[in-house]
Design brief:
By secondary structure, the chain is an alpha+beta fold. It is built from eight helices and seven strands.
């Protein structure tokens, strides 16, 4: 390591020698900072969640191909099932890639609607409340996609996720269906990243989407909050402000 002459002082009052020593200590082999441990845990959970997401359609696809290969009389029907499973898997992966790896550019309503083909079959996304020319910048588009995934999870018996305009640079997401409910703790996660990190670190992979959505919103500078619910039977509308 090159030493700074004259024991120079950094902006935080520590000498460069001291700052360098702190950096070495933080990077000591076999040790991870709390932030690094949190990041590693989140990566593990996302990997487990992704495996869960693809295992069902992939299993259906493999089973159908095996039937087509070994039972000629059922080949046509099996190949039809395989084609539908492959299409479902591809759509799901496109949605998860945009939601978890980040939308590379601004998305318009047409692109969002196409990505929502990857939502579960029992959930339908209604974009009728958004202007046709509405566009979401990359960071806010990623958060919106995660909110849509979370809204789909809040509809265990199926339903509709409605998107609407809520003024300049804002949108509303409302899940409507039997037993619709956002996950407990979502309000706290949206207000402060600290409880969201704690929830993510202790979550099972199937419960990761709630804290993950909140953390992505904090990182992108998108403000999430509950809005007044005119329909008492529905989960409260979720308001996204991205400017």
């Amino acid at each position: 390591m090159r030493r700074t002459p004259g024991n120079a002082v950094s902006g935080n009052g520590a000498s460069h020698d001291e700052a360098g020593q702190e950096a070495v200590e933080e990077a000591a082999p076999g040790q991870l900072s709390p932030a690094s441990r949190d990041g590693l845990r989140l990566a593990e959970l996302l990997a487990a969640r992704l495996c869960h997401e693809v295992s069902g359609p992939a299993g259906t696809l493999a089973g159908a191909v095996e039937i087509a290969r070994t039972e000629p009389a059922s080949a046509a029907e099996a190949l039809d099932i395989a084609a539908k499973a492959a299409a479902s898997l591809a759509a799901r992966l496109r949605l998860l890639r945009a939601a978890w790896a980040g939308a590379p550019e601004a998305l318009d309503v047409t692109a969002l609607r196409a990505l929502c083909a990857g939502l579960p079959r029992h959930v339908w996304a209604d974009f009728g409340g958004l202007p046709a020319e509405q566009r979401f910048p990359g960071g806010s588009a990623q958060v919106l996609l995660n909110v849509l995934l979370l809204a789909a999870e809040s509809l265990p018996k199926g339903g509709v996720v409605t998107l609407g305009e809520a003024g300049p640079d804002a949108a509303l997401v409302v899940p409507r269906g039997q037993d619709a409910a956002w996950p407990p703790g979502l309000a706290a996660w949206m207000a402060d990243p600290a409880p969201a990190w704690r929830a993510a670190a202790s979550a099972a992979p199937r419960l990761l989407q709630g804290p993950l959505t909140a953390l992505l919103a904090h990182g992108a500078g998108v403000r999430l909050s509950f809005a007044f619910a005119a329909d008492a039977e529905a989960a409260p509308p979720l308001l996204l402000r991205y400017a």
